[in-house]
Amino acid sequence: MRPIVGIISNHYMINDQYPAHANGSMNTEAVSHVSGAIPLTFPADPSVVAVDELLEVFDGFLFTGGRPNVHPEEYGEAETEAHGTFDRNRDRVALPLIRAAVDRGQPVLGICRGFQEVAVAFGSTLHPEIRDLPGRDNHRMPPDGTLEEKFALRHPVRLTDGGPFARLMGGTEVQTNSLHGQGIDVAGPRVRIDGTAPDGTAEAIWIEGATGFVLAVQWHPEYNAGDDPVSRPLFEAFGEACRTWRAGRAQAMRRAG
Ligand SMILES: N[C@@H](CCC(=O)NCCCC(=O)O)C(=O)O
User: What EC number(s) does its UniProt record assign (predicted)?
Assistant: First the structure.
């Protein structure tokens, strides 16, 4: 059987009335078609799921993008208007789940808000609006336009020579899309910035001392994941890590009994 990837959901109001947990189908398609895993969305609500249960059910985790920002309380700062909207339920599931999965060596892939969650889970702070910082660019998507226009490639990302991303992508410069307002301000002690945009914004990170696959990107590789030369190796490597985790789990169960 294919490994099972848990994809964290966002909270939506369908027709402004009906509460739902959902994520974009680009994520499920990338996990199924490119990672070769079964994509299962789980609710980001600590009143209905526990971290320990999720760790047992899934072989790896995809922390997706999502409009609401990680609450600044999670990195020791006070809430201001610039921080925008929040999803405290997702914070309360994502942050402990990321720490626990990384601790066990269970695969984690973070995308956009998921990148910010991985960063915060390991002690980073975020800036609420990076375009307001001197010398920094606007990394937000165009407010109008088609999906193709919103997810179009926007800037290069310089990768560390010999680092995990450059090895995966076969080069030290890649082109990426960009759909975010926040960004890493101060990186946590174990957070290694492996890719940066021309204005210095952190775009790709990994976690020092992690025994399993933990990569996170500020861009959206789920878009066009099958064809994009940057997205494809990332989702393929994530799938491989999930297969390895599942095989290890099966072996441990056979030994136990
Ligand atoms: N809130 C953060 C993260 C931005 C992000 O994940 N954008 C993608 C949104 C996709 C969606 O709406 O589901 C920030 O702005 O920095």
Answer: 3.5.1.94
